[in-house]
Amino acid sequence: EAKRLGLNKVQCFTSNLQTQLEKHLHVEKGLRRALEASQFELLLQPKWSLADCKVIGFEALLRWRSENDGLISPQDFIPVAEKTGLIVPVGEWVLRQTLAYLERWNELGLCQYGIAVNVSPLQLKSGQFVDMLQHLLQEMGIAGEGLEVEITEETLLDGYEEDPRVQRDLSRIRELGVKIAIDDFGTGYSSLRYLRQFPADIVKIDKSFVSADQEDLVEPEICRAVVTMAESLGMEVIAEGIETQQQRQQLMDLGCRVGQGYLVSPPVSFDEATRLLLVPAPDKT
Ligand code: C2E
Ligand code: MG
Ligand code: MG
Ligand code: MG
């Protein structure tokens, strides 16, 4: 009986692997097609001042509109893009699109609004990212100051100490005038002590500390500690995932000044984002 159960387990395990592999291949094929057939869309989510909910900038968030599977979330395809190396062309597409948005805003006189792009660990480790960034800024004639790069805390912890290239890349990014934000701060095994070590301009408090199925902040003490530490290091703080007025108020009381989240806006299309800048939304405070 035990043997039979054991065997079942193995069969279950291998068939699991089989489906995972099939899914992986399916996604990989789809991603290649998506790049050729322009099935990606880059949405923009506003970042806003907590005091008055006025939009001060954006984060670019990628979507894949697949013919067969509908809208696919980055969490479902970025890992495959990383494993297959497709993250490099996908990341280049994201960067080009972001710079095209900034160019359009420059033409409309909206040059004070910046956009943050997410950069995955493997993109950085490919060693080509900073060259590409520098090249594209030059080619499109855009100042680095309009751009931010979001790198997760995990990526930084993972590569920073062992890999001198990561440190060099981060300094080069900043030399281009591009700001660096530490994304999802608090989710890794980091301690606040690490903040001092990273050459970053902005810290983003992960949404798991801000919102869950409750109206109040999930972890007010952690939020307070991050705000205090970042402040003393001269870094800006952005709280992600603000969904309620209570959370907004509590974060303000802790000294946090900038937020992002469904309370003000989900990620929206470029046209919608531009409309938000040209025709400010009704007061939500
Ligand atoms: P992230 O950079 O931490 O982005 C924040 C995520 O929280 C986004 O999910 C956003 O839609 C979601 N969000 C925003 N406001 C709220 C809120 O009030 N409540 C809740 N519950 N969620 C909120 P999304 O767009 O699905 O992206 C997931 C992750 O995928 C991102 O996390 C980022 O790590 C990655 N990603 C997205 N776009 C790109 C990209 O262009 N390149 C790379 N390498 N990664 C990307
Ligand atoms: Mg991000
Ligand atoms: Mg985040
Ligand atoms: Mg995240």
From TrEMBL:
Residues 24-281 form the EAL domain. It comes from the Bacteria. Transmembrane segments: none annotated. This is Diguanylate cyclase/phosphodiesterase. The chain holds residues 288 to 572 of 572 of the full protein.
